[in-house]
Amino acid sequence: MRTRGRSRVLLVPAALLLAACTGPPTTSPESVSPPPGSTPATPTTEPSTDQPAPTPDEDAGPVRIAVVGDIHFEGPLASRLQDPATALAPVADALSAADLTIANLETSVGTGGRPEPGKRFTFSAGPEAFTALAAAGVDVATMANNHALDHGRGRFPSTFRAIRRAAEADQPLEVVGIGRDSDEAFAAAVHDVRGTIVATIGASVADQDPTADPTGDWAATTDRPGIAVALDPARLLQGVRRTRRVADVVVVYLHWGIQGERCPSPDQRALATSLVEAGADVVVGSHAHQLQGDGRLGTGYIAYGLGNYAWYTPGDATTSRTGVLRLTVRPRTDDPRPPYVVRAAWEPQRISADGLAATTTGQDATDFRADRESLRQCSGLRP
């Protein structure tokens, strides 16, 4: 059973964020576009967001955000979707302990379409994948990655229907990083956690060499569905600046880096710096399929690589190492400084033969902490 401290969930499109940045808006953050695949609602006029922020709830306390790495339902995990409500039950306690939990869903979702020709790995899951994530405690899933379109654009109608239903379910799941156009793909999922507004943006900046993974044509555009591709980060950085105007905490989840590398690339480090300067409080990512360093960068907190989390094979001792990174963010106050992470703690885990992460103790947990310190050395981050 999940206990959550949030009171509303919104999906904020780029158009609204632009209004918040360029002049006095005519709508509040509540007047937003629906999630991908839903029917647009008639907007309502609300007070300008330039008005003073409301006083935080009396019970407002630190906001707990949990982030995990790559999840899909291949191999031994596929049969678990026969009962979506319990598919990820063994990790539900670890995932649901935070106010807000964010993960990368590394698969196409829906029905129809066909596997992308020439692609070595093509992952697929039915709409019940969203149910499984929500039931286990995940609140936001990014699909901005190199497997979201493994079964082509022919699957998109089914994907967007599933996204809409997931957002409307009793246990809602917001999906970011994918959309019917670029505005939807770059839209932020926004949660109100006891008066603190937390926005999550998903984007992919992973190498999209068509000879390896033909995802160069997967980018959403003004008139084409796809994922949020930020190989040119200008739009992503602009979106973070806009989101900073309407949110207290901005989280950016990226698909980036070089597979198999334990240290972040120079491009990752440069983009992380730019994102923090633009207003991101938390920048996390995946794609290397193993942990990379995490720590403080200026006013932001960075976790370059979260590794795999629910994966078809444990791999070796390095790729099987995973965990839940829990970040504690101070609540909104009248202090003009941006919110910041005041505590970061990992729950060390390993992926087992069944594809699921299991919490480790003893020497393995000790080794995890030592490895984390080692990884930080090549990341340029502070404890």
Characterization of this structure:
The structure is a single chain. The chain is of the alpha/beta class. It has a single domain (6-34, 56-377), classed as Metallo-dependent phosphatases (Purple Acid Phosphatase, chain A, domain 2), CATH 3.60.21. The chain is built from 8 helices and 19 strands. The strands form 4 sheets. Strands 2, 3, 6, 7, 16, 17, 18 and 19 form an 8-stranded mixed beta sheet that branches. Strands 1-9-10-12-13-15-14 form a 7-stranded mixed beta sheet. Helix 1 crosses helix 6. The relative contact order is 0.15. Residues 64-313 form the Capsule synthesis protein CapA domain. Residues 366-375 have a biased composition (Basic and acidic residues). Residues 1-27 form the signal peptide. Keywords: Signal. InterPro entries: Capsule_synth_CapA, CW_Biosynth-Accessory, Metallo-depent_PP-like.
Please sum up the structure shown.
The protein has helices at 14-22, 89-95, 128-136, 156-168, 182-185, 234-246, 266-278, 362-377, and strands at residues 6-12, 63-71, 100-105, 108-109, 124-125, 140-142, 174-176, 178-179, 188-193, 196-204, 226-227, 249-255, 282-286, 294-297, 300-303, 308-310, 321-329, 341-351, 357-359.
